């Protein structure tokens, strides 16, 4: 019989502006402490991934979006995407005005708008998620 593994459920947000910037947070904790990542985190009990994505975006960056305005990008479940174990994330796209203010909070040391053409090294598989968003939804 195959071994059963524990799977953790998360949601991430690719928040982009019309002038070609994406919102990233600098992680406050391990894994990848000090590295840049998409805003996101665990889906709470009784919560949808869409609601979790909107909540995590607000908690980590101060950017508030209505969950119904989030566009699902896909599910990312590569077994080695997180060094803590098996994490499956549903990623969402949020389009926000270019002058949207940000305020880092919760798990974020800081938050910053980065040009899509000049991203720093990213944690987890977040570069893959951003590339997927660009290829499929931001042309």
Describe this structure in words.
The protein is α+β, with helices and mostly antiparallel strands. It has a single domain (7-137), classed as Nucleoside Triphosphate Pyrophosphohydrolase (Alpha-Beta Complex), CATH 3.90.79.10. It is 18% helix and 35% strand. The chain has helices at residues 49-61, 126-137, and strands at 7-17, 21-27, 36-37, 40-42, 71-76, 86-96, 108-115. It has a four-stranded mixed beta sheet, with helices on both faces. A three-stranded antiparallel beta sheet has the order 3-2-7, with no helix packed on it. The chain is globular, with a radius of gyration of 14 Å.
Radius of gyration: 14 Å
CATH superfamily: Nucleoside Triphosphate Pyrophosphohydrolase
Poorly predicted regions are: none
How many helix segments?
2
Shape: globular
Strand-residue fraction?
Answer: 25-35%
Question: In sequence order, what are the helices and strands, one letter per element?
Answer: EEEEHEEEH
Q: Which range best describes the helical content: under 10%, 10-25%, 25-40%, 40-55%, 55-70% or over 70%?
A: 10-25%
Lateral arrangement of strands in the main beta sheet: 4-1-6-5
What's the number of domains?
A: 1
| The CATH top-level class label | Alpha Beta
Task: Indicate the CATH topology.
Answer: Nucleoside Triphosphate Pyrophosphohydrolase
Distance between the termini: 46 Å
What is the averaged pLDDT score? 95
Assembly context of the chains:
single chain
Number of strands: 7
CATH architectural group: Alpha-Beta Complex
Task: State the major sheet.
Answer: 4 strands, mixed
